[in-house]
């Protein structure tokens, strides 16, 4: 008996996006204290709110905050499988809003809504897709939003199609 071969695929082609579609990214991610400290050290962010419990305990938050660069990186990474897995390039991020604190131990989730798509004027086999991504904690609290645009190949014109 011969089975059918299935090739794994990451992301979507330009044609697969529709304005108004919402992608609920899965899985979520629990951010640990080790994640926070390692990212802060790696990026040379020495703010004591990320690594000094005694300092953070005296703040209005009462405990350490997760480095906002880390939350942005994690939420952005969560979107790759649905939004930019086939992307040729990220074209930019804008309107990054940090609207609630994230603490070590919080589990975060994300979703992205397609705001716009258009064929590239200079690259006829590619298009530009713009999404708004929302980061939410497990309790539903929105902690971050941002808008991002990516250059996405049309079906038959991606790197994956050449493999």
TrEMBL record:
A GO molecular-function term, please? Answer: lyase activity
Record-linked InterPro entries: HotDog_dom_sf (IPR029069), MC_hydratase (IPR048274), MCH/BMMD (IPR052342)
Gene3D superfamilies (alphabetical): Hotdog Thioesterase
Full protein name:
Acyl dehydratase
Originating species: Extensimonas vulgaris
